[in-house]
Amino acid sequence: MKTPRCSKQLLAIAAAFAFALPAVVQAQTINPALTQRIQSDGTNETGFSSSTNGTSSLFVGDGSTDPSNEFRDVFEFDISAFTTEIANAPATNGVVFSISITGALGSMPGFDLFALTAGEDGARDAGDYQAAATFVKSFTATSGTITADVTSFVKADSTAAQTFSGFRLQVTNPAAFPSANSTADQIQFGTIGTNDAKLTIVPEPTTIAMLL
């Protein structure tokens, strides 16, 4: 039985696409080069735990012994090896920040993600607690995985030839914490080094995917 001419033409077109299209590009995941949990006495940063300490818990909120102590988390990602992937990522949701919540204590008024605009050097520094930063997104979740589109910030860092792109999680409104009590009010993210945040670089859809 002869193959209809139209079928032959379709097969020829499909074969041409198979040879012409590049291999499918996979999403790239970047783990933080540095993770810090930094605490403050309500005015100035006073101490921190870094990613080298794998036994330190990671959370935002206050402490049970002194509610005026606020804890913030800082993540710095080495993006220097991903300049091409970042440049080719879509302008929206091309680079996504994510981290999983492992627990919640007390009463939390919500928390925010900020993109650092200063201090992005991959170095352990308590000053990152209040380093200049731009608001990205607010969250009220107490479980699951939170995500945020950070494409514009990472693209800007990469275009500026910065080695690191940094982000900070912090309480939305520390004044909304319950008054002094013995209960910690926290959103928890597990242990430093085991449940850190990550950046996912999502590639542009391939031509064949857009045709489907």
Q: Secondary-structure map with pairings?
A:
Blueprint: H1 5-20, E1 28-30, E2 34-40, E3 45-50, E4 57-62, E5 70-78, H2 83-88, E6 95-101, E7 103-105, E8 111-116, E9 133-139, E10 144-149, H3 151-159, E11 164-171, E12 186-191, E13 198-201, H4 207-211
Antiparallel strand pairs: 1-13, 2-3, 2-5, 4-5, 4-12, 5-11, 6-10, 6-13, 7-12, 8-9, 8-11
Taking all Cα atoms into account, the compactness measure Rg is 22 Å
Q: What percentage of amino acids are in beta strands?
A: 35-45%
Please report the number of helical segments: 4
- The portion of residues assigned to helices is 10-25%
How would you characterize the largest beta sheet? 9 strands, antiparallel
Q: How far is it from the N-terminal to the C-terminal residue, by CA?
A: 29 Å
Spell out the helices and strands N to C: HEEEEEHEEEEEHEEEH
Molecular shape: globular
The chain-level mean pLDDT equals 82
Which stretches are poorly predicted, pLDDT < 50 over at least 5 residues? 13-21, 207-212
Would you count the extended β strands for me? Answer: 13
The structure class reads alpha+beta
